[in-house]
């Protein structure tokens, strides 16, 4: 396979340090913060319905290095991203003396601004602390793996470290408060009416566990994932989604309309499908379908978490397929490429289940697969997807050189490897360095895969896929 690795955490850190030293010679950053992306195993589009979701952290994320600026007269902060995928403008200046409003461009800066603005609501104006930071991420942008939440949570962690002891105990954030603050930043500055899942997972997930989150009261339960013979495989269709584009908000609205028509605050309160059936005449066919997805998905997620805790992978997998079908037919947030990847996975012996993951309209699928079948599953997805690409888009052979699928492995295993390594790696930095890592597991040797994400080149159709996704979702 032609492979291109995405950065490991050590590589992210090295790139950040190198850039920092290049840009600010004779200076060293003193703070390093990290927050992981996530993959949602099941429970899609139900967090904003107060439902259950079942995600886990993945070993890609966002890292920020930086330091406080203590020149007495300055109120200005400097923020730069190393990401290649965010458009032209890579840096911004933020003046803490001004009001911190969302900006039109560059869009990525709103995640930083939003978290900063909401964080500063807790800090006395006289105590505002200027800083400079560099940001790097290994989460594919727009892939449904929480690229934005990981920036928000890393930023919030950076600020917690920046303010450190100067915050009184009632100014400090619990992990749930931190998730809520970051979620609010996304809603108010990125204009996405999202639920709490992504930020919550980035703040609270821990190694070797998936997290069953009850989004009604923001409590959660860790479900151990310690079977070394079972893997979670994340496959990126490279169809890019953009949640801000309105389709997500439309789904949130549809669900709220259904809940109101049924006389509830949120769809979580609907206890049976019968209740929905009885009120079918009151709502449009679309509202009915959206509600049916949310109500059944909440039920599926509770049952699935129970099945996983009993190592019943067959049952878990069955529910994953059901979830995908419901997202595809009732919620209409899948696309042909995602459906194709799910069907390809389903055709492989040893695959328990597969589904689209995240907001949809492109992005990734997640597959639960026996370790012994991982190779076969990747091969099948790679070859089948390539064939399908060609059906969607007849093309010249000379185009055959671009990335189409990215694959990320997570063993359900109890290895502590990543956490230990990265904590050590950071001790080398100057004082005040703290590393916050929540790592689920990865590593696979047999397939020559050393990194968490693995890009497979098969067809130069990235741009066309963007167009297709627009057509399919009517964005
Ligand atoms: C996005 C949102 C989440 C959640 C998922 C769909 O990732 O940020 O809050 O709604 O979509 O499950």
TrEMBL record:
Transmembrane segments: 425-447
InterPro entries: Galactokinase, Galactokinase_CS, GalKase_N, GHMP_kinase_C_dom, GHMP_kinase_C_sf, GHMP_kinase_N_dom, GHMP_knse_ATP-bd_CS, Mevalonate/galactokinase
Domain Galactokinase N-terminal: residue ranges: 19-66
GHMP kinase C-terminal domain ranges (all copies): 304-385
Domain GHMP kinase N-terminal residue range list: 110-204
Coiled coil: none
Record-level Gene Ontology MF annotations: ATP binding; galactokinase activity; metal ion binding
GO CC terms: cytosol
Superkingdom of the organism of origin: Eukaryota
Key words, A-Z: ATP-binding, Carbohydrate metabolism, Cytoplasm, Kinase, Magnesium, Membrane, Metal-binding, Nucleotide-binding, Transferase, Transmembrane, Transmembrane helix
A Pfam family: GHMP_kinases_C
Stored Gene3D superfamilies: 3.30.230.10, GHMP kinase, C-terminal domain
A single BP term in Gene Ontology: galactose metabolic process
Protein family: Belongs to the GHMP kinase family. GalK subfamily.
Name the record gives this protein: Galactokinase
Upper classification of the organism: Eukaryota, Metazoa, Spiralia, Gnathifera, Rotifera
């Amino acid at each position: 396979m032609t492979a291109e690795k995405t950065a490991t955490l050590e590589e992210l850190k090295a790139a950040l340090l190198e850039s920092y030293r290049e840009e600010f010679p004779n200076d060293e950053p003193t703070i390093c913060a990290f927050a992981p992306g996530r993959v949602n195993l099941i429970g899609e589009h139900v967090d904003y319905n107060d439902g259950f979701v079942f995600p886990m952290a993945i070993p890609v994320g966002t890292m920020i290095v930086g330091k406080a600026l203590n020149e007495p007269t300055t109120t200005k902060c400097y923020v730069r991203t190393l990401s290649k995928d965010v458009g032209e403008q890579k840096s911004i200046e933020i003046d803490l003396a001004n009001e911190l409003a969302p900006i039109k461009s560059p869009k990525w800066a709103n995640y930083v601004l939003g978290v900063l603005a909401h964080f500063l609501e807790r800090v006395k104006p006289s105590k505002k602390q200027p800083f400079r930071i560099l940001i790097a991420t290994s989460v594919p942008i727009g892939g449904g793996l929480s690229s934005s939440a990981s920036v928000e949570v890393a930023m919030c962690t950076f600020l917690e470290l920046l303010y450190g002891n100067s915050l009184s105990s009632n100014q400090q954030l619990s992990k749930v408060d931190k998730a809520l603050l970051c979620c609010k930043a996304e809603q108010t500055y990125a204009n996405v009416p999202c639920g709490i899942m992504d930020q919550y997972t980035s703040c609270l997930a821990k190694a070797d566990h998936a997290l069953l989150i009850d989004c009604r009261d923001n409590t959660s339960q860790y479900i151990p994932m310690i079977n070394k013979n079972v893997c979670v495989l994340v496959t990126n269709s490279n169809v890019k989604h953009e949640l801000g584009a309105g389709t997500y908000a439309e789904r949130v609205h549809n669900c709220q309309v259904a809940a109101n028509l049924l006389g509830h605050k949120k769809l979580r309160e609907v206890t049976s499908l019968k209740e929905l059936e009885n009120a079918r005449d009151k709502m449009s066919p679309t509202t009915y379908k959206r509600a049916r997805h949310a109500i059944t998905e909440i039920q599926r997620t509770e049952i699935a978490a129970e099945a996983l805790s009993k190592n019943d992978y067959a049952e878990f997998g069955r529910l994953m397929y059901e979830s995908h079908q419901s997202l595809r037919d009732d919620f209409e947030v899948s696309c042909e490429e995602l459906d194709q990847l799910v069907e390809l996975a389903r055709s492989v012996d040893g695959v328990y289940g597969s589904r689209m993951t995240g907001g949809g309209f492109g992005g990734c699928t997640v597959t639960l697969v026996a370790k012994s079948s991982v190779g076969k599953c990747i091969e099948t997805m790679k070859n089948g997807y390539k064939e399908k690409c060609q059906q969607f888009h007849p093309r010249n052979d000379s185009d055959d050189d671009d990335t189409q699928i990215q694959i990320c492995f997570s063993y359900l295993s109890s290895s502590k490897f990543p956490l230990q390594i990265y904590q050590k790696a950071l001790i080398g930095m100057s004082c005040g360095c703290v590393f916050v890592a929540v790592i689920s597991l990865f590593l696979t040797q047999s397939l020559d895969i050393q990194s968490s994400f693995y890009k497979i080149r098969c067809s130069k159709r990235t741009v066309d896929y963007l167009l297709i996704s627009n057509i399919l979702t009517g964005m």
